[in-house]
Design a protein that fits this description.
This protein has an 8-stranded parallel β-barrel, surrounded by 6 helices. It has helices at 10-13, 23-33, 44-50, 54-60, 75-88, 101-117, 136-142, 149-162, 175-182, 209-214, 224-227, 232-250; strands spanning 14-17, 39-43, 64-71, 92-96, 124-128, 167-169, 187-190, 219-222. The protein contains 12 helices and 8 strands. Helices cover 47% and strands 15% of the residues. By secondary structure, it is α/β, with parallel strands linked by helices. The protein has a single domain (10-250), classed as TIM Barrel (Alpha-Beta Barrel), CATH 3.20.20. It binds cytidine-5'-monophosphate.
Length: 251
Amino acid sequence: MTETSRPLSARNRLILAVDTSTIDEARRIIDELSDYVGVFKIGLQMLMSEGPQVLKVFQDKDLKVFFDGKFLDIPNTVAMATEAVARVGVDMLTVHASGGKKMMEASVKAARSGAAAVGKQEPIILGVTVLTSLNKAELNDELRVPGSVSDQVLHLAKLCQSSGLTGIVASPEEVSQIRAVVGAGIALVTPGVRPKWAATNDQSRIMTPADAIKSGADYLVIGRPITAASDPRDAAKRILEEMEQGVAAAL
Ligand code: C5P
């Protein structure tokens, strides 16, 4: 999936976090929400519970899928894992930027060859910079990375770009700063999004859908405000409307 000059609709910019463990539950979520959601994100919980065949559930329905496996290993291992995922066919996948440039370049190359080998489109490879669960003290004292969290986020964002990645995962608060350093040609994907009417759950540094779009996010990852709502379709519809307001305000 590569960016085109045609702007994506709000639906195609909404990524639903499918944080469940069973294929049956994933099927139920797809059936209920695919009118409103363009991309479905599955992570290690689902993959470890059901195996890679879970990806088929999305492909059978021609839906876009984001595999959030956050690869971090030596370049050859990450390349082989990326190639395997690209052959199965996903639209987005994640790698840790802290694996370094050689690792990210190897992932980009493997995604290209894996997708080409089976005639599928190359996935967007998203770099994860600093996990939002880490604070400055942990970064400085445990990991011995000096400076502020945002210095390190911006440093790794530039490294993602120079390594050929086509996207970056960013907290809503980082989006505008990252956009300023990487420019327009890279997809910024933002979790931690909460409409005013939804529970914050365990997210702390949050932004509304409209504000996240206004800040420069290309895609929003949203889970519980939709999946745990009493009427998930209505929640998704309201979120799309808020995203559209953000697009209009940004013009
Ligand atoms: O339910 P909720 O909207 O909080 O889901 C957000 C999704 O984004 C979850 O799958 C979560 O693991 C993921 N995520 C996040 N914050 C990050 C990176 C990923 O919330 N920094």
